[in-house]
Inverse folding.
């Protein structure tokens, strides 16, 4: 124990100069505090502070007063702790030569107290100010504490990736300084990994436990926290008995340390209740939640997000047991305890987002309220007003999600938010469809349903494109935009290096650099928003694309088919120039497996299986009410449909005993031209983008030969040369880059904005685990490795009307709920491409060349022809030639855009 004291008392000056009683009181207080005897330690800290003050030993006086403020926090005297810390800030300025150090320590205490009080925004603001100062000083222990606390706040807000950055930075500092608080970092990292990687989470907890068991007695808060956290992982893995055992261990420790109740005891009891809730033992669960609620109310003595959260849990037990009225009653209590002024128990009333204390808790309340109102309607009242109120709450949740997304800086955290909110938007579509059927306001509710559907599609991509557009039109000087571009390039490089999993030492260095550049970029973005109001207004413009906007660019022969795939239903929107229809079907059994089977029949030319499954899928998901005059389809896919070339579906029954005849089957493409988009909003925005009349060039890029085991593509040379000939005949300025001219270095050196068409005839590789490592293969040089990664593509500046990726499987990616496919296609769209041609599987370069030459010939012969129509005609040409009639050859390539 003595050696630990010497480390912890590093900042105390020389004890020999103190009065003996002050020294002894401080040592006694510190010993008691380390044993978690906070109540007993309090008086000794007070006495030691008095002694140091009397002897004018102000550094040790401030040490004792700072530790006392932390002691008050641990005694749950939060407002007293804040008051003392604020006084300490003033005295540090007055008495100490190390005032910055004492200020940082006390600001950290204030921030932690605010966090416990549920005021996370106050906590975050204080920590950011303190960290900005600490980063200029040499106080690594305090900086690590501040990083870690800020990381925990970001984790509580659902910003896991940002949380990891701060927590890993805190761990790095503690490891470099051999800090005794390293176990706290392990514990905090375990929290963040609970839902990301439970195995890794438990590994961190074990590391923390190995440290704690050598430092603390068994009945200690640190151990209680670990028991709770390990229990949470076990609960997520449905190991209910083990989870309950650990929650009870934690509860007993808190009870023994705080006989009058503590928030962490309430949390442990609440988690026991969650175990019984998941086991569907609702009465038992409710009993535990009520016990937890009693402790929270006694401790906080007023409104608090944890009280609100407990009411949510009570509401959940009633919802799950089919008692929606009781559920709604408790949701209203949750609202009241999570808002500053809201007090209504009327279920028709909901607080505004501006009045809310904790966004995460409020979002859960809104979701649960919508669910409960739907249950009330279907099981008891059949009142349309209940559905209207449910939809109203989903609209509020939609506003809240937009606000949460604005506060998130990490792309990964925004995508994760999209995954969470996708279920809410699906419920919104379902309720609107029900209202459209049951009420006399079909048009209104179909349009509202369409809005919800769009909010579950590629919102992060749309936001990123919107931010890029805002920078272009926000009156920002070019030199500032150049500075921003350089920062982004550095961040992209480091992210790629980290994703490639280097050695541990190099990884730590890369992460440290990435942390610094990310903070610089965040500060840069905030400064842009402050200094350039036009940029700020464009970036955060809340105007959404309306049905009327989309109709204004649709012709009489074109329809948008937009799909939303839920767990049990598929919703199909059919939008034409004059009408919006919404159809709901039960999700077919084995739906995703059937799509996989169908794709395999294409790849392996399994004739009978292809026909049978192609007709089955078409019959199940193609709208029955599509007007006959519709010739062109824009399909907004969702879920597994994102990898399905729907033009290859079979529209009529075919005699399975007939001779194999791929060139004479009733494919959908015979009736319609088909193109795709990630969302109707994205399709509209790209369609109405102002074309730059000066960029009429076409760049044709084909490396042909590659290093290592990558196969050569001799057919691509003929492909680009013949396309070049077609382009020149139409008086297009053509730049053909083949072999050594197709080096990554040379491509990046081009002013890519000068080209209206970019054609890449090469290999591609999609990394579904790390989408930013998906790549297009180009030529290698000393400066560049020849791998044009998706992360690098995001940083290109394009103004291309069309980018064609005549490469293998580049249309695939990581399928993410709420955002769709994340891969190369998305990267090019962000970089400025309006339309794309991509492939869904590997195809021979000979047949690809034939298809591409036909495609460009069709397009350039008639500039009024859409890319979808030009591709249709090119595919029909292959179908008519028996050699390439199999869908394997032509169905792989799809058009994203018009």
């Amino acid at each position: 124990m003595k050696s630990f004291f010497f480390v912890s008392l590093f900042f105390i000056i020389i004890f020999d100069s103190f009065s003996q009683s002050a020294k002894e009181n401080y040592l006694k207080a510190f010993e008691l505090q380390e044993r978690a005897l906070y109540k007993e330690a309090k008086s000794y800290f007070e006495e030691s502070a008095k002694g140091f003050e009397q002897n004018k030993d102000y550094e040790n006086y401030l040490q004792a007063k700072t530790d006392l403020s932390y002691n008050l926090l641990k005694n749950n005297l939060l407002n007293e702790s804040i008051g003392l810390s604020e006084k300490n800030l003033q005295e540090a300025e007055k008495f100490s030569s190390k005032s910055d150090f004492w200020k940082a320590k006390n600001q950290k205490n204030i921030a932690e107290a605010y966090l416990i009080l549920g005021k996370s925004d106050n906590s975050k603001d204080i920590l950011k100010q303190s960290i900005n100062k600490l980063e200029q000083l040499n106080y690594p222990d305090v900086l690590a504490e501040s990083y870690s606390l800020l990381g925990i706040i970001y984790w509580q807000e659902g910003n896991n990736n940002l949380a990891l950055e701060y927590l890993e930075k805190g761990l790095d500092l503690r490891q470099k300084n051999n800090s005794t608080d390293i176990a706290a970092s392990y514990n905090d990292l375990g929290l963040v990994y609970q839902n990301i990687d439970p195995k890794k989470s438990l590994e961190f907890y074990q590391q923390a436990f190995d440290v704690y068991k050598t430092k603390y007695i068994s009945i200690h808060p640190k151990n209680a926290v670990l028991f709770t956290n390990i229990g949470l992982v076990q609960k997520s893995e449905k190991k209910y008995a083990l989870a309950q055992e650990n929650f009870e261990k934690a509860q007993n420790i808190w009870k023994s340390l705080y006989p009058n109740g503590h928030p962490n005891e309430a949390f442990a009891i609440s988690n026991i209740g969650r175990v019984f809730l998941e086991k569907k033992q609702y009465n038992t669960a409710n009993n535990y939640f009520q016990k937890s609620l009693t402790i929270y109310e006694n401790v906080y003595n007023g409104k608090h997000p944890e009280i609100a959260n407990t009411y949510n849990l009570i509401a959940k037990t009633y919802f799950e047991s089919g008692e929606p009225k009781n559920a709604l009653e408790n949701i209203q209590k949750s609202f009241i305890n999570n808002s500053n002024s809201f007090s209504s128990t009327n279920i028709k009333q909901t607080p505004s987002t501006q009045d809310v204390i904790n966004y995460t808790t409020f979002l859960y309340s809104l979701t649960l309220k919508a669910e409960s109102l739907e249950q009330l309607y279907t099981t008891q009242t059949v009142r349309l007003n209940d559905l209207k109120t449910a939809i109203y709450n989903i609209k509020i949740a939609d506003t809240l999600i937009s606000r949460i997304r604005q506060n998130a800086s990490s792309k990964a955290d925004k995508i994760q938010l999209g995954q969470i909110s996708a279920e809410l938007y699906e419920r919104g579509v379902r309720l609107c469809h029900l209202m459209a059927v049951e009420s006399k306001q079909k048009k209104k509710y179909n349009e509202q349903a369409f809005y919800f559907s769009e909010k579950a599609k590629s919102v992060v991509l749309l936001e990123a494109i919107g931010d890029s557009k805002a920078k272009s039109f926000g009156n920002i000087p070019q030199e500032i935009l150049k500075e921003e571009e350089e920062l982004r390039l550095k961040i992209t490089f480091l992210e790629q290096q980290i994703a490639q999993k280097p050695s541990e030492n190099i990884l730590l260095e890369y992460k440290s650099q990435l942390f610094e550049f990310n903070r610089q970029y965040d500060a840069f973005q905030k400064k842009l928003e402050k200094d350039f109001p036009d940029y700020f207004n464009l970036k955060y413009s809340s105007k959404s694309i309306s049905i009327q906007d989309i109709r204004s660019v649709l012709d009489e022969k074109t329809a948008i088919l937009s799909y939303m795939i839920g767990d049990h239903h598929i919703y199909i929107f059919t939008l034409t120039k004059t009408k919006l229809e919404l159809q709901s079907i039960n999700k077919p059994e084995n739906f995703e497996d059937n799509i996989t089977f169908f794709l395999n029949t294409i790849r392996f030319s399994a004739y009978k299986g292809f026909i049978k499954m192609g007709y089955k899928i078409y019959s199940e998901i193609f709208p029955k009410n599509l007007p006959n005059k519709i010739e062109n389809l824009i399909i907004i896919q969702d879920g597994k449909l994102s990898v399905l070339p729907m033009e290859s579906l079979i529209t009529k029954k075919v005699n399975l005993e007939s001779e194999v005849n791929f060139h004479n089957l009733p494919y959908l493409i015979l009736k319609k031209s088909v193109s795709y988009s990630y969302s109707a909003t994205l399709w509209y925005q790209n369609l109405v983008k102002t074309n730059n009349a000066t960029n009429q060039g076409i760049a044709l890029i084909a490396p042909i030969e590659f290093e290592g085991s990558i196969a050569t593509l001799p057919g691509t040379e003929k492909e680009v040369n013949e396309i070049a000939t077609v382009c020149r005949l139409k008086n297009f300025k053509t730049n053909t880059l083949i072999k050594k001219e197709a080096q990554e270095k040379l491509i990046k050196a081009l002013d890519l904005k000068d080209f209206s068409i970019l054609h890449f005839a090469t290999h591609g590789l999609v990394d579904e685990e790390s989408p930013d490592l998906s790549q297009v293969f180009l030529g290698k040089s000393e400066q560049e490795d020849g791998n044009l990664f998706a992360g690098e593509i995001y940083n290109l500046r394009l103004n291309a009307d069309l980018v064609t990726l005549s490469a293998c499987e580049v249309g695939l990616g990581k399928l993410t709920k709420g955002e769709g496919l994340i891969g190369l296609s998305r990267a090019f769209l962000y970089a400025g491409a309006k339309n794309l041609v991509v492939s869904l599987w590997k195809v021979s370069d000979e047949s690809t060349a034939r298809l591409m030459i036909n495609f460009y010939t069709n397009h350039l012969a008639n500039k009024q022809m859409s890319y979808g129509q030009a591709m249709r005609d090119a595919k029909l040409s292959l179908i008519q030639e028996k050699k390439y009639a199999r869908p394997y050859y032509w169905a792989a390539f799809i058009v994203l855009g018009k």
User: Anything to note?
Assistant: Residues 2-137 form a domain with the Serine Threonine Protein Phosphatase 5, Tetratricopeptide repeat fold (CATH 1.25.40.10). The radius of gyration is 31 Å.
